[in-house]
Amino acid sequence: MIKDKIADYWNWRSTSYHQEYMSRITDEIELWEQILTPILPEGKHLNVIEVGTGPGILALALAKMGHNVTGIDLSPEMIKKAQNNAEKIGINASFREGDAENLDLAAGSADLIVSKYLMWTLPHPDIFLDGANRILAPGGRIIAVDGVWYTDTQEQAPAEKPYSAFFDECYEEVRPNLPLGKDNTPDKVVSLIADHGFSDSTWRYLDDYQSFLKTFDTNETTVTPYLVSAKKSC
Ligand SMILES: C[S@@+](CC[C@H](N)C(=O)[O-])C[C@H]1O[C@@H](n2cnc3c(N)ncnc32)[C@H](O)[C@@H]1O
Question: Which residues pair with 229 in a beta bridge?
Answer without folding.
Answer: 143, 202
